[in-house]
């Protein structure tokens, strides 16, 4: 009997092995129908050409174990022979027995509204069908029914991994009839995975009739969508490649909740008590029928209830670790030893021994025990590895805000992952705003050849606060890419763009402008002016034109890019929102904080609507809204917004994330400006200490310079002026070694230093410092730059402090005119200059005029800032002096 079976296998083996010759690893899992379809071992391998003797076939079987599971006849199974959909990913329902006697583990199929559309996609015998919907919406079952109905004589191909799918493209494209089954399509995309070119070869393969049938969750479909990420971000290349695959598919959406028509069709099958209960639940609640049948809501409740002390806390921790692995981008089953390490993290976080955890084996048995013989919280695999039920991680990530993944979980997963999986984890960490673990994952992924992991690592280094090191890394990548592909290669241009960006962020905006002009010229020549990469470089150019003081030119470039992106991509595209961000930031930095605050308020609303309230970009834009609101004179309101923002950042971001740290700085700054300089200085001292201790920023980063400048300013305002002057003396020396001579932030340090010297009573020295500062600002930034206007105001204060009130009044009168022209009559700096001018007029002997001027200033301050603002109180006090 055995010899007869092997004779049939050997006779059919040639067909299969001409197709699979040369594959070096297990690349295909073929589903064989009901259990018992293959006698003996769970997997059989075939590795010989057709017609060879049994001994040769069996020898190659032993040499390449696990290459291929075959049917009894030694061929890939026909779709008609695969009559167990659970093996293809369909969630089981409660089996027969008791109240469901006579009903199998998979209930009768109830026709879905999306089925005709799905059938139409594949009506020509080939095509690429992609079913999109939430977990347990019924996507996989619908795909199975369509394939069974229309392709019973096709061979069924289920790749084992993304690498397997790539290896199978050429052999499968030579089959006459085949269905490629890609349940959870996202697992086949990514580094080393399926590309648009592979799919096109399958679909356009001569006389072959190959259908690709895939499913993907709605969340993953959005992730790979056109609005998911900027092209120059880590993960952008993978998402873009996946997006190109998705564009080839005909998308059919499967709703999780069932329509009235679907529920009516299900009513015809309510002799099955499982369907009857699911329909009743769907009619009275917000769940779908398929969701109830898979027992997904009950499994989620069991997981949450298991945390109770004395219940199943170890099992809950075990499941939590496996769920977090999937949330972190590791979607392959995990071995038991890794799960042990992960579960200890969650158990300790919840209370450890105080929860009275059960023994390990008991916990594992409970987590893998199917609820009513449907799905289980953990899905065991034959090799002793485990995967969390997909409904769990998708549900957790839909929470607002989604819970943070513990640091130790990232570390264990990165340690466990190979370089390819580390790249997936790194991209997920970056998208979640976790730059520290993204860097660690990309560093491990960089062990494989190719630039991609090193590019993403360098980007994370720059975004995490060390732009000079990022620029150095990209400098080396540019040289390497030019050697490999030449100056016009896509990789070379990407690296040049990033190198320029991080040189600008490292304090060299003028150099970045020159570099970016070259990149734009080359990208325009090769890709066109409106290509997304060219637009990205133009957007960067606008940023650094503004940083280098060329405000009018920067505004013009931003307006041009914003118009192009809105027209080409739409108003809600992330790239368009990025240009809106840059334009608003530039206006605020150019002295129009009120307008910038309004633009950011609108941008935050659009980010929240399109990307969610806890997306890293939404949090970042909230920070800038609060910042410019404070710059516009509303310091107390800004401090309150920063306090709220800091709480939200800590819910989803690393405590050392740049936006978390920047929120701490914003809160401290505007507390100081609202009248509490002592507390502000103390908060900044803690921030600076934390940054140094954790080495968050590189030694040449401009960010700590900003923190230290404000710390010195508030120390001076709190009475420690001499200490402030010493700090600023040191800061000036260090800033000169980091920032370009014309960098606006360097001028801000010089202005703070001169102001503290003046407050210390060294009027002559302060006047000389302000005089040089005015000349340098005019030379580098222009007459109308906000820093130039600030320096002119400081020089006037020196004259007033020296008792030369008439000269001070003359300078301030001109300054008021210029600030009104450049910034507007209600800008806080304009109002401050008007207030100072009135006081100098009064001190020079014209009390009546000073009173008239101060009354007008008070009226405008109340109108702009409100009745209770402290600046209004200050003007009232000064008005009392002159009336």
TrEMBL record:
It comes from the Bacteria. Gene3D superfamilies: Tetratricopeptide repeat domain. InterPro entries: NLR-like (IPR053137), TPR-like_helical_dom_sf (IPR011990). This is Tetratricopeptide repeat-containing protein.
